[in-house]
Amino acid sequence: MKRLATAAGALLAILTARAEVLTEVPRAADGHPDLSGVWQTLNTAHWNLEPHVSAYPVVIELGAQFAVPPGHGVVEGGAIPYLPDALAERQRRFENRLTDDPEGKCYLGGVPRSTYMPYPLQIFQNPRDVVIVYQFATGFRRIFVDGKEEAPLDAWMGWSNGRWDGDTFVVTVTGLNGLTWLDRAGNYASGNARITERYSLLGPNHLQYEATIDDPTVFSRPWTIRMPLYRIVDEDYRMLEFKCEPYAEEKIYGHLRKPGTEAPAGGQSR
Amino acid sequence: MNRQAVTIAGLAAIAAAAAANAQAPKHPRTAWGDPDISGAYAEFTTAPLERDPKYGDKEFFTPEEHEEFAKQRLTLQFADDDTEPGTQADVHYSMGQFALSENEGVTSLNLRTSIVTQPKNGRIPALTPAAVARRDAIAAARKGREFDGPETRSLTERCIVWTSTLAPILPRGYNSNLQIFQSPGYVIIQGEMGDPRMIPTDGRKLPDKLLPQWNGTSVGRWEGDTFVIETAGFHPETAWRNSSEKLRVTERIKRVDDDTLEYAFTVADPDTWAEPWGGVYPLTALDGLLYEYACTEGNYGMANILSGARTAEREAAKQ
Hints:
- The structure holds two protein chains of two kinds.
- Chain A is of the alpha+beta class.
- Chain A has helices at residues 2-22, 84-95, 97-100, 113-116, 245-253; strands at 37-40, 121-125, 129-134, 139-145, 159-165, 168-174, 194-203, 206-214, 223-231.
- Chain A has a nine-stranded mixed barrel.
- By secondary structure, chain B is of the alpha+beta class.
- Chains A and B meet through strand 2, strand 3 and helix 5 of A and strand 3, strand 4 and helix 4 of B.
């Protein structure tokens, strides 16, 4: 038995050493992992953080190409631990998602939702600041490295302080305004939420993203989502603008349009 | 050190640099060796965009002339109107009232008689006949439809582009502040209002074919201590100052002292102006941070403009 344990230990040591070789990651001049680059998720978390089978589109006429694709979910343990009233609120939001989801209005996605919307994001890194620009609604975050700046006011993208914990970049987000959603299924947190994000490179082209959501007014305990981000490796790739404002105007202001005038036709590009 | 002292020091530094035009001062560098132009800056300056024709080719005020000019511009032009409470005249959008006027923030003193320095008379060249025709056609198509729906309003009212961020960067009525971040291979210019411009400095060139972007597409390079940005590929509707999608903008940013950057620009568009033109003004360091603007999320202005128009139409129909 003891011999077996020793052998297992030796094997583990070999595997660990091998893993270290495999997890060689790009590093900045200061020795920290270099997170910079254009990244995007490849999952259905933007539809629903929880495990879900496929579903009809929110407007039935949109047909199969706008149906909800299935997904294994990204929540540790599967279900989000809502308090009873909050679960009812989630259901209410789900039912009103066509009109109420801030994504449809081109509103800033907030944290963590912006990370796993189906659009690229770009990370810029220097020893003092990490900046993240999200393609959707041109979301922008400045993360103060080793910062202890208190959130001076609430904001759609919150207020972010980061620090390096070994090779993991840990970001604490407060000052969220509670107006953002977590996905298209009505999942949400309130403005009391404190989000702890953890960014760790798994290799040159994979970035593990983890976010723990702590909000005692909505959930019975803190809970965690986890998913990889994939580097966009296309040569000289640049994030294009996605100014989504024009596409939300009829939804937001259509009732104020001059009677008899027409909204821009569907499919017209801007 | 108070702000005025800072800006006066900045002026002195500009003058000294211009006089000597040598002896490059030791400016800070980033950890990876690029000149460090990062920070938060105000775009406000006392110099108007165009020169009053009465000054001719005179590029700089004397300090005495400038004092009088700045007093006029800051005290009179942007002061609160003295209106009687409860009257219609009193109900207006006062920049001063909401701490948004130019003189509420940091305003760099600037002995220049205009931001525009090319051509020598400090005046923006006339539009070519083709540009006039283009402008008039757009205006004619919009005439009578100005308040029909959100799509007929200006790009700024619709939270799409802002001149305080768009190349070339020019101060506008309020919130004309920006911050600059640097990382290896990139410079990011983020306006208080408007989109971050992510400018690669890795040596890539502007492709010949660019997809139209509201803010254009930029590439940057370091020429000594000066950051040079080339931008092209604008969306035809961006139409900065009636320009066409052939607009090409060159910007040059360099540090003058701890509190001042010099921002210079040249714009060229053969379909709009017979010759390129440009200008220069200082960006002055802000003692503080910029906060999220979230334009669309709080765009009550658009709803109020349209509902006001509908109300006016209903009232007119009653007559």
